[in-house]
Amino acid sequence: MKNMMGLINLHENHDSLREITGHRPLAAIPFAGRYRLVDFVLSNFINSGITNVGILSAGNFRSLADHIRSGKEWDLARKRDGLFLLPSLQTGTVQGPFPHDLADFFSNLDYIKSSRQQFVLLSGSRSVCNINYDEAYRFHLDKNADITVLYKEYEEEKVKRLSGVTMLGTTDDGRVVDMEICPVNVHSNKLSMEMYLMDRQLLIDLVDASVSRGGTNFARDCIMKNLENLKVYGFPFQGYLARIDSMQNYFEHSMRLLIPEIWQEIFFTNGSIYTKVKDEAPAKYQRDAQVKSSLVANGSVIAGRVENSILFRGVKIHKDARVTNSIIMQKGEIGPGAVIENAICDKDVKITAGKKLKGEINHPIVIEKGTVI
């Protein structure tokens, strides 16, 4: 797939994740012990042979820029093509169901125009999966499509719990004839993964035409309004998909990683998932440590009890402390005798000796970055 470039659009609404996105974009949310959400998109691109990748920045971009740096970990630090950070004209966080992303597409058209590849694959960062885009590319060519939208079919009961999503309606041959963005009542079971494949020149033309007519949102003004004029097809993704669009979904999909089959699929099915390398010692388990059904990242030191939990890099669990059904992010510290259950602790959270915090399995308690309790 050397004939395809990748674009990562960080203009994503994350109002329902504001407890952990107040100081970082959605793409920089820590996930699975050592990773950020953007790692999955970048790894899928490079595993599919896409080596020209542009990241359309939005909001507070500093933490993400620090994480991806030159793109070396994803083999994107290249003399030709490679990783490009595309500046945004906007400040502040992305809000509302229709982010004003078209202005930033338009301001970075020179990068898109100067790229050598014929096709472009546009993706957000909230859809976590392990996918090789080669099959979707062949589908796009076989259908002679103008735009191919990747989607995931959900069971009817799961669809009812979805919110803030884009749903597709298709014919029997896969033609997209309806598109609903953030519907109150969902009428389809086909969830858009917010991944779009199209000809690079078509993207340029759509952005130019939409902006000149007052358009502000890519999905609505470039795709949904052109369903009758363009051949838009939907490609069904058959693998595991974790859509991170709320604190409950973040917690639920994180806990599902403790199921070996899901962990294997999301990290190894179509290639490895890469992340920023940190030279830290392996996790240290002291004499009284008890760890069961958990993911523990390097640099952690455990002297207490950890069960059904995810510990990120540099976490310290002191003696007689107990952590159950919880996520402890980087450099968190749980003091002696403290009890944490059904909780999400952001970076640098410190729980002092003897404190007890307990959320509900369907409504975990969230401790913001740097908090000391």
From TrEMBL:
Domain Nucleotidyl transferase: 17-239
Residue ranges of domain Glucose-1-phosphate adenylyltransferase/Bifunctional protein GlmU-like C-terminal hexapeptide in the record: 285-356
Metal-binding recorded as keyword: no
Entry-linked Gene3D superfamilies: Hexapeptide repeat proteins, Spore Coat Polysaccharide Biosynthesis Protein SpsA, Chain A
Keyword tags: Glycogen biosynthesis
One Pfam family per UniProt: NTP_transferase
Keyword DNA-binding: no
Superkingdom in the source lineage: Bacteria
Family, similarity comment: Belongs to the bacterial/plant glucose-1-phosphate adenylyltransferase family.
Listed name of the protein: Glycogen biosynthesis protein GlgD
Biological source species: Sporomusa acidovorans (strain ATCC 49682 / DSM 3132 / Mol)
